């Protein structure tokens, strides 16, 4: 991690109780329990909605709505004690019944909760012996349970308004939805009834949706924070005396996702050829301005149990051509690469297409908006797509054959089950290594990089995270100085 602070003349006068963020994608809903987009949590997590557990910038867990908890000796039950001073935005107190409702809603077959398989399906029973106590009984021990409860899909919804959470969210956080200007911005306003309202200095926060800049263009003067935009246009503002550049780490994994169920991508030789044809170092340098680390499986170096596998498929165009020839393709393979509207995809897609063309693969670039990507590629209707998975510890998505990659490997699912049931850290770490090697050997996807997080912020704004174990902006911690 490095922090670049630029000295210079004072910036123009700004409102000392407001902040404007630029983020790349517009959420398709404001309910993080019903849809997978990370942009949802960027806006609402910690701000409108809260969970039992809080994840700190260093990746540690701490109390949020739960003031304390204890686990049974066998790791199969957790008892949470709720804070006594929490109310929803409509004034109703938070009670254990709301936690039970939220988690059972997430367990429903049609819930759409992206943590359903890894978190909620593991909850066998939920007891609420009194209004402030919640007991989770698990099917199998989960060493990551507290962390998963700290992610945005585990926030607690108001039982009476959960169906409207996507557009009219009522939570327990320090901010409320003020306005959603579709296609442009979302504005939150401070809630006076928050349990610790006196500590919140911001009166208002706006999230603007900006996913591209013209190179070397000036930054929009009304934006205070540009989050995760490692473009030449943004980084050129290192020379601007009004901003500071924060560069940190995250659990993100950038990859060319491959539809394993669709011919000819169901042929491992083709998938391995794709991996050998892609020059990860060039992509990191040209697309991320060097702010990333090559990876070779679905783990970031920041995640527990990480195994360095970036050398499993070295950049080797000749090897790629040989594998394609073995699979029956000699300069006659045509594939479509679907690109969502993010800078890394728009810039990276062009480069990936050129690299694949060099080994005889004709790539058609398909540009889609975020809603189209979620309804198409994320539903399995794609061949290749360039995407960044930001969720930490999400390797178990590969155990679901219905997930959009279409990876169906019973031996891999056995590894996931063995890891879930492992009874000591050493065994769990060994199985994590086997999980990573299996994904790499099967060339399920072409993993590219673990990107660093680049945030450009107006000087004088304090409380921003530098490292992002999860994508969240804690507005209550921000203040102007």
Automatic annotation (TrEMBL):
GO terms for molecular function: peptide transmembrane transporter activity. Keywords: Signal. GO terms for cellular component: ATP-binding cassette (ABC) transporter complex; outer membrane-bounded periplasmic space. CDD domains: PBP2_NikA_DppA_OppA_like_6. One of its GO terms (biological process) is peptide transport. Coiled coil: none annotated. Residues 62-390 form the Solute-binding protein family domain. InterPro entries: Peptide/Ni-bd, SBP_5, SBP_5_dom. It comes from the Bacteria. Belongs to the bacterial solute-binding protein 5 family. This is ABC transporter substrate-binding protein. The lineage of its organism: Bacteria, Pseudomonadati, Pseudomonadota, Betaproteobacteria, Rhodocyclales.
């Amino acid at each position: 991690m490095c922090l670049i602070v630029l000295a210079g003349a004072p910036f123009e006068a700004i409102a000392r109780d407001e902040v404007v963020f630029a983020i790349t994608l517009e959420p398709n809903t404001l309910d993080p329990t019903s849809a997978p987009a990370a942009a949802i949590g960027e806006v609402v997590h910690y701000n409108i909605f809260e969970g039992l557990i809080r994840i700190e910038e260093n990746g540690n867990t701490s109390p949020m709505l739960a003031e304390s908890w204890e686990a049974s000796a066998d790791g199969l039950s957790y008892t949470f004690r709720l804070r006594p001073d929490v109310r929803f935005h409509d004034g109703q107190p938070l009670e254990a019944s709301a936690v039970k409702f939220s988690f059972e809603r997430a367990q429903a077959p049609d819930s759409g909760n992206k943590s359903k398989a890894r978190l909620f399906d593991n909850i066998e029973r939920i007891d609420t012996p009194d209004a402030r106590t919640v007991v989770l009984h698990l099917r199998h021990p989960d060493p990551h349970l507290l962390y998963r409860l700290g992610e945005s899909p585990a926030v607690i919804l108001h039982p009476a308004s959960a169906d409207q959470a996507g557009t009219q969210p009522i939570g327990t956080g320090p901010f409320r939805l003020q306005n959603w200007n579709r296609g442009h911005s979302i504005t939150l306003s401070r809630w006076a009834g928050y349990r610790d309202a006196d500590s919140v200095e911001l009166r208002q926060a706006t999230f603007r949706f900006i996913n591209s800049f013209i190179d070397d263009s000036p930054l929009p003067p009304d934006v205070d924070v540009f989050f995760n935009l490692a473009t030449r246009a943004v980084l050129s503002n290192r020379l601007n005396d009004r901003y500071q550049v924060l560069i940190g780490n995250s659990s993100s994994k950038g990859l060319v996702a491959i539809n394993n169920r669709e011919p000819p991508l169901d042929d491992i030789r083709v998938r391995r050829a794709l991996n050998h044809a892609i020059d990860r170092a060039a992509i990191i340098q040209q697309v991320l301005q060097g702010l990333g680390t090559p990876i070779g499986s679905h783990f970031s170096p920041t995640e527990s149990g990480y195994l360095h596998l970036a050398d499993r498929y070295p950049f080797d165009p000749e090897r790629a051509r040989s594998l394609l020839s073995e699979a029956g393709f000699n300069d006659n393979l045509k594939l479509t690469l679907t690109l969502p509207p993010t800078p890394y995809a728009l810039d990276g897609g062009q480069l990936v297409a050129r690299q694949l063309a060099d080994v005889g693969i004709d790539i058609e670039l398909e540009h889609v908006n975020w809603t189209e990507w979620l309804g198409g590629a994320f539903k399995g209707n794609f061949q290749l797509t360039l995407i960044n998975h930001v969720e930490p510890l999400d390797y178990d998505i590969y155990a679901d054959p219905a997930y959009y990659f279409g990876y169906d490997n019973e031996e891999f699912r056995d590894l996931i089950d063995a890891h879930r049931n492992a009874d000591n850290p050493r065994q769990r770490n060994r199985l994590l290594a086997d999980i990573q090697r299996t994904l790499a050997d099967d060339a399920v996807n072409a993993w590219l990089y673990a990107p660093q997080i680049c945030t450009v912020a107006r000087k004088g704004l304090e409380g921003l995270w530098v490292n992002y174990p999860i994508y969240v902006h804690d507005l209550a911690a921000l203040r102007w100085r």
